[in-house]
Write a structure and sequence with these properties.
Order of helices and strands: HHHH
Largest sheet: none
Strand content: under 5%
Number of domains: 1
Shape: rod-shaped
Number of helices: 4
């Protein structure tokens, strides 16, 4: 087999394998996208819980205005809860930003894979066309070989070929003695 012209069947098999690998990668990316969506929902639930908690503590602070002695203790407690809520909110915002970055990366990867898939399909189409051309040329050559075989058999079975056999033998003998 000529390394400059690899077997079209082998090339087609490689292209099919690359297509399968690309499809597997797309499915993996879709799974990752689904997992990221679930994490985003969880972050939103945490944020809602933090907002609910902050609202409850604000109501407690309004009630604490009536009781001055309790106001100082509740105010300190409210500050601590507010810090925790802000920390949770900050962490949720960081996770949300990370999730948005991951989604952007996955979109870019999906776009790249789609472009690669288009290129693979174009290459497959070109290879299929070349295969058909090669097959047609091979069939034409096989027909020509068959025709030439028929002509040679007809020539060798002719009367003139048999009658001139002694001349060809004589020529081979002289050619052999010169070498």
């Amino acid at each position: 087999m000529n390394p400059a012209h690899p077997d079209p069947g082998e090339m087609l098999q490689r292209v099919r394998q690359q297509l399968i690998l690309a499809q597997v990668r797309i499915m993996e990316l879709e799974d990752t996208r689904d997992e990221t969506g679930a994490r985003l929902g969880e972050n939103e639930r945490l944020l809602q819980a933090a907002v609910t908690l902050a609202d409850q503590k604000l109501d407690e602070a309004a009630h604490a205005d009536k009781i001055r002695a309790d106001l100082q203790a509740q105010f300190i407690q409210l500050q601590q809860i507010q810090q925790a809520a802000n920390a949770a909110l900050g962490a949720a915002q960081v996770r949300l930003a990370q999730a948005e970055q991951a989604i952007a990366v996955e979109k870019q990867i999906s776009a790249d894979l789609a472009a690669q898939l288009r290129q693979v399909r174009e290459t497959e189409s070109k290879l299929t066309t070349q295969l058909h051309e090669i097959t047609a040329a091979s069939d034409a050559r096989q027909q020509r070989i068959g025709q030439l075989d028929v002509e040679i058999r007809a020539m060798k079975s002719s009367r003139s070929w048999r009658w001139t056999a002694w001349l060809r033998s004589l020529e081979r003998t002289f050619r052999g003695s010169r070498s």
